[in-house]
Design a protein that fits this description.
By secondary structure, the protein is an alpha/beta fold. It has one domain: Rossmann fold (3-Layer(aba) Sandwich). It is built from eleven helices and seven strands. Strand 1, helix 2 and strand 2 form a beta-alpha-beta unit. Helix 2 packs across helix 10 and helix 6 packs parallel to helix 7. The longest helix has 25 residues.
Length: about 270
Amino acid sequence: MVHREKILNLTSCLRRSPPIIMTTSITRAIVTGHTRGVGAALAEQLLSRDIAVLGLSRSRNTALAQRFPQTLEEIELDLADPSRVAQWLAGDALRHFVDGAHSVLLLNNAGTVQPVGPIETQDAGAIASAVGLNVATPLMLASAVAKASVTASDRRIAHISSGAARNAYPGWSIYCATKAALDHHARAVVLDANRALRICSVAPGVIDTDMQAEIRGSGKEHFPLRERFEELKRNGQLSSPEACATQLIDFVLSDAFGEVPVADIRELTQRS
């Protein structure tokens, strides 16, 4: 279940970093869930490539802030609460961040696998949080970034999807459905033929993150395929967040990005 701190008011939820001093970089990226796992690796590698990053998460990435004080801006925001996200988007922080950029990237990385279990065991609040984090917020950010970057010559939106979007798994009805929603969103957006906008919903493979540990900690009665994921861990078949981030960024920045609305990073790697 997504753990959410009780937020007393909007001010405490939307505490912002001091305004950053923009570099001469013409590419800027928005990354959700930038404090751990794949999100942290994405943010670190983008920053290392001199791409300014706006990180959106419930907490801050202190280590990255110390290394990249001029090019990392962070917003503390509960991404599982669409009403809070909408309130933040009503401000001008996003527009200010992308203003003047020739290329704008959005990497919708944050997500949750919870609630895990058969339909009768799923908590209504956990379902609402999952839909908020996995679907509503990515779609809201995609629309907001497109609106805020109308003068950019290149706009790219990457939904971090999952194999679960394309294959059903017992105990993962919410996760499968929410990730499938991202895939179909990308397919539909492509049909709009938006100016200078590319979008793709990308499955990154099985990554050695906290989410994988959470999956392996699920009871078999809730997730019958748990042993399969335990075996992947034992056999060293999980990709590292760093390796995954490199593949994702290389793809997002490539000419091939957006040629198809739905992709799997493992298949792209095999073809290359």
